[in-house]
Structures are given as structure tokens and as C-alpha cells.
MFS transporter
Amino acid sequence: MRTLRRTLDSGGAADGAGAGYGTVLVSILTATFIGGFDSSIMLLAAPTLQSALGASFAQTQLVVVGYTTAYAVALMTGGRLGDVFGRRRVFLWGAAGFTLTSAVCALATTPTVLIVARVAQGLTAALMLPQVLAIIRASLPPAVQRRAVGLYGATIGLAWVAGPVCGGALMAWDPYGLGWRGPFLVNLPIGVLIIAGAWKRVPESHGPRKRLDVTGAVLLGAALFLLLTVLGGSLALAPARLALALGAVGALLAVFWARERRLEARALSPVVPPDLFRQRRFARGLAAVLAFYASNQGFLALLAYYVQDGLERSPLATSLLFAPLSAGFALASAVGGRIPAHSEHRTALGGIALMATGLAVFAAVVCWAPVSLQLAVMPGALGMLGLGQGLVAGLLISLVLSTAPQEDSGAASAVLLTVTQLAHAGSVAVVGSVFSALLGGDPGAGAHSAADHARAATSTTLVVLAVCVVAGFLVHRLFSGAARRPEPAGA
């Protein structure tokens, strides 16, 4: 933290704009990390929570997905609220609410209270997190912004891969017998520090001060809620009902988009500015982000299941297996922030090659190696995968967001975060569907041997590898186009 502050402060001073930028960035990036971290840390705590509260399996799942669903549904509204009412003000509202709801989660004594508190926690995260990029764009000088946006992208990815590692370690350590409450209590001192740093250092900024489109926010929220519900329950839906639900999602989105275009034509304030998607690099970049995060989250879900059920290892052992992935991501992210602009294209392609190689090695050892050799080789393959992800994530997000106008940076950040949430939900559903089909039923059925699990895991990994190759192609096209075309004025 101190090194980061010194580096950014010196950059700001060199630019003549003064010091203190490191404190601003540490505060808002810590919020970015803890918001994404809370999405994944509960995955390994779910069995303990279910036993301690006497919750049903469905209630336990709601604890996990209630946060992510509420977060994804409200992101666009949260981003636009910051543009209208002030990014600093809404960020502080969100941070205070996130800290308070974390305390309510930790003190919950029934599954119902915990589910409601988790949904409220997701809503407060949707107020807090879309403001981060807008604050970077409005508060930091140009000399610092590029590095800050790269760190922002790396922080989003690191939060997702670090959650399972820290969750498993915290469950194994179990300080003071807190059990599943520990991850929520950790948020309290961190939340206080975030609020203190933002209150002291973050300046206020606004987008166009126009009336919020409440009708559009409701339409978009309903569409996203239905889509996430469909993705989460796609295994249990009959094909006809699945098609009907997706048709309803499409109809809601069509009505929403028509309304947004009318508001834009009348110079009002839409929730999602249609002009963002007329930026070809922004639209192509979102497609690359969708493929990138879908492949990563699907693979992580598969890995957690395969190690615990296929290899019969404990949650702690599973979390330790994630450690090389997190370490590789963190290392590559630190290096990636220092890469010159003219080398970004080659760096991204190198990261894609590392990702593909790591996935291929992982698939090969699962398919042909005995269990003892698998556990010996997997850390190296996962470390390679993490290095590749760390090189790509920050550069990709930085390039996508650099095309957004500053006055719409809150909305652009919310669009990006919404796409990553949809990628996470969709990839888990797709991997689960393929996995279930390969096993011929419930993936957890005891009639299947570990060898069956290994073969199914290998096949699914190859599917994810194919998705990763598509992501690589999209990222390659995005960076190639950026390299060939001059920057538009004001970008």
C-alpha cells in the first residue's frame, strides 16, 4: 500500500498537479477489491453456513447468489446515480451501507435474515463500485490515469481469484470460532478505512445533472434479474420454458433500448447512453471482456468441484491449490502496470498464449496422469494461467474504458461490471450443463467413480479452453484495431 501511494504520488507531483493521488487510489481500489472479493469468498464457506444455521440447500444458494444478483441488477442505476448526484457522495453512501450490511450479515441468526442482508449488501456494492472508474477519470491527472485504470482492471480480476483462497484459509483457521461469520466481520475495519480515506482525499465530481430515468432503470433491472435467474436455473428448466424466459428478457431489453434512444434524442439522461455502443472499440471490447471472464470463472467453478469431489480433497486443500493462480495474477498485474503503451498489443497476446498453455497442461494431466502426478503438476499449470490472466485483464479493461467520454464514465464502468457479472453467471451455468450432461445426471451422484469425474472434467476443460481461444481472438482483434487506428479527439 505504501509503495503504491509513493509511486502514484510521485507521478502526480511530476505532472505538476500535486500529491495525494496514491491515497485516493488505495481507498477506491480497496473498495473495488472487497466488493468483488465478497462475491466469491462465500463459495467455500457455504457448507459451514448451512450446518450452523440449519439452512436448506436452496437457502444456502440464495446467500451466495443473492449478493451477486442484486449487485448486477443495480449496477447501471448506481453508476448513473453517481453521475447525477456526485461520485464521491454516492461512493460514500455505498461504502457506509456495505459496511453496515456486512455487520448485519455477521450477526444474522436465521437464514432469512442473512439472505435479506446479503441482497442489501449487493445493492450497496452497486452504489459504491461504479463510482471508482469515474473518480479515477475525474480526479487524477492524465499522467496517472493510465496506470490507475490498469490497476483497476487487475484489482477486479484479483478479487475473484483471491476469494476462494482466502475463504478456505479463513474457514480452516476459524479465529475465535467465528466460522462463516468471519468473512463478514473482516469487512468492518476495511470499510471504515475506505470511508476515512475517501472522506479525506476524494474530491467531488459530477456528470450531466439531469433527472434519473427511473422507468429505464426498472426495465433494465427486471431484464437483468430475469436473465440471471434463467442462467442460474437453466439446468432445471425445460427447453420450452427456457426459450420463453429468454424471449421475455429480449422483449424487456428491446423496450428498454427504445426508451434509451428516445431519451438520448431529446437530450435527456438515459441509464445507459446509447452513444457508448456507437464507439466501435468499446462494443468490441465488451465482447472480449465477456469471453475473457466467462472462460475464467467457468474454469474456476470446474476446478473447485473436480478437486473436492473428483480427487476428494478438503476445502482448505482446494483453496491452497488456487494460491498459484492468485500469485501469478498478482505478479503479472504488478508487471503489467509498467508496460509501455507501444508494447501492450504484444503483452496481451503473450498473456493469451500463457492462458492457453496453462489450460492445455491442466487438461492433459487430468486426462492421462495419476492423481499424485496431477496434484504435483497442477500448481505450475495454474500459476501459468494466472500469469496470463494478469497480463490481459488490466490492459483489456484499460483499453475498453479509455474510449468512454468522461461525463459518462460512471455509466461505462457500470456497463463493464455488469458484463463481468453476466459472464460469471453464464459461464457457471454453461459449465454445469456440460458437466451434468457428461455425467448423465447429477454431478454429485455417488455412482460415478473418480475416473468418470476426471474424464468429464477434462472434456469440460477443453470446452473452456475453446472459449479462451475465442477470447484471445477477440482481444487480438481489439488491440490490432486500436494499434491501426489513430485515437479519436479527446480520447
